[in-house]
Amino acid sequence: MATQDPNKATGTALKEREKTDKPRLWKVVFHNDDFTTQEFVVEVLMRFFGHDRTGATRVMLLVHHTGAGIAGVYTREVAETRVRQATEYAETAQHPLLITMEPE
Question: How far apart are CA 23 and CA 75, in angstroms?
């Protein structure tokens, strides 16, 4: 009886898996304006982007001092949804808060 060499092919063909690319990520950017209150920006960051008060305040101050700040980085669908929800909320509250998204 012959022993089988474990290094020898067994006749089973292995199909190579296609590599899937990771989805492109998008930055959600808050822009400074002269009308939206800082407290409202903090509220939006906490409500729609999951920041705690400290993190939301940090982003708000960055927006205030530099003109823009990143609220988060998400897949396109998540970023679009959060931008839409936060923008609609701001419009309802009569704030001209500008929130955009751009590729990372």
Answer: 7
